[in-house]
Amino acid sequence: MSANSEHGTMTLKLIVWRQKGPNEPGRFETYLAKGITEHHSFLEMLDVVNQDLIKEGKEPIVFDHDCREGICGTCSQVINGLPHGGQVRTTVCQLHMRKFKDGDTIYIEPWKAKAFPVLKDLMVDRGALDKVIQAGGYTSARTGAAPDGNSILISKESADYAMDAAECIGCGACVAACPNGAAMLFTGAKVSQLAALPQGKVEAAERVNSMLNAMKECGFGNCTNHFECQAACPKGIDVKFIARLNREYLKALVF
Amino acid sequence: MSLLTSSVGRKVLMAVSGFFLLMFIVAHLAGNSTIFIGSDWLNAYAEHLHELGPFVWVFRAFMLAMLLIHILFGVILTLENWGANPGKYAVTKRLKVTFSSRTMIWTGLLLLSFIVYHLLQFTFRVTPEIVLAADEVGRFDVFTMVVSSLRIVAIAAIYIFAMVVLFLHTRHGIQSFLQTLGLSNDNLQPKYALAGKLISAVFLVGFGAIPVLIFTGILVK
């Protein structure tokens, strides 16, 4: 354990939301995270705590995670009141313990939104975002041979704009941060990405309406332009995409 | 009709009605500013307005419709938003939310009660302290009516408080309606936010100066 002896270790007090199942009452429980180094990621720190819990014969803390590279959008925890811990453009898995000090108290909670029911502890069901995508977050294309390269020309500007919108990893931090539990940044990014490209323009009007309907059916709230979503987004998705969604809606309404 | 039912449709109705209410505030401030020139100007302005006859009523009906739409959808959207949020986090931290953006429903409802009071006072003229008289040239004396009411400390305080509430409401509302109507992007948004603050400050100073100057006895004629 050379890392520990060289850098010293931290002990942190974790106050973690524990909930047995979707309709069970939840409560906060306090744990000590011992032997944590500055090199641990936040999720690795939880792995350490879970190992200790397993050794004690207790149930480990359930949390979502997958790639641990900051690109899959699976990790989802509100840390000290901020989704993904509040470090700019950083997912929980890329948040490192060097951002914390020995003796810190850390509150860890699941995403809170009516559309995201808690499955267990820190894991929520984000299937609502999939339903919004299924409603219109695609382009219909004929199958057959691969199209010729460059048969549809796309300007650098449009390609860059669409790519910025496509950076969304669908983690749901925007919904978790929104005081209204709205998914407008997520939906706006997909509507904008596809509306900016010739392949997506064809279904633009249908798309914006059906995605908005799906949003409502899933129980997401309405945008009140707080812009908390943009500040919380680990990919820095801009609220200009919400304005674009609003424009696409008006275009669909008028034309 | 998706305008009435969809999330963005309802917000568009909020934005459009809010825009007309904002335009009304601008026109009202311009009209009120005649009081700074003198009682003669204010009374003449009021007389001209009333000479418009049926147009006044068409205009009033339109503004009432805008107000009702704004209130109705404001309340519906807020209730939906409360329903979509199951509760606060144990630790509450805000990155961008402002006091102004967070309290729109409350500042809105306070403004509604102020509008009712203001109309009862200076439009229907039924509040107990109201002074009804004619000026030297036989016009209704709006100036004396306003001055005698705003000399009362409680009434001056209500007006000043209402203008602070209006400042908070339009501070978020101006940038918000531009975003909702899709007229915003990453370059314009911060400019809208700044414009919202400046315009709201003009409202606060412009309208707020009237009760302040009257109550302190600076505006007498």
3D structure, described in words:
The complex is a heterodimer of chains A (255) and B (221). Chain A is of the alpha+beta class and 255 residues long. Chain A has helices at residues 2-7, 42-55, 127-136, 156-166, 173-177, 184-195, 198-201, 204-217, 228-232, 240-254; strands spanning 10-18, 27-36, 78-79, 82-83, 105-109, 118-120, 123-124. In chain A, strand 1 (10-18) and strand 2 (27-36) form a beta hairpin. In chain A, helix 3 runs parallel beside helix 6. Chain A starts with a helix and ends with a helix. Mean pLDDT of chain A is 95; it is low at 1-5. Chain B has 221 residues and is mainly α. Chain B is 76% helix and 0% strand. Chain B has helices at residues 2-5, 7-32, 34-37, 39-51, 54-84, 99-102, 104-123, 142-150, 153-180, 188-215. At the A-B interface, helix 8, helix 9 and helix 10 of A face helix 2, helix 5 and helix 9 of B.
Helix fraction bin of chain A:
25-40%
Task: Work out the oligomeric state of the chains in this entry.
Answer: heterodimer
Order of SSEs of chain B, N→C?
A: HHHHHHHHHH
CATH superfamily of chain B: Fumarate reductase/succinate dehydrogenase, transmembrane subunit
Q: Outline of chain B, from the CA principal axes?
A: globular
Structural class of chain B: mainly alpha
Highest CATH level, the class of chain B: Mainly Alpha
Span between N and C termini of chain B? 53 Å
CATH second-level architecture of chain B? Up-down Bundle
Residues in β-strands, percent of chain B: under 5%
Structurally, the number of domains of chain A stands at: 2
CATH names the topology of the largest domain in chain A as: Ubiquitin-like (UB roll)
Low-confidence runs of at least 5 consecutive residues of chain B: none
Summarize the structure.
The complex is a heterodimer of chains A (255) and B (221). With 255 residues, chain A is an alpha+beta fold.
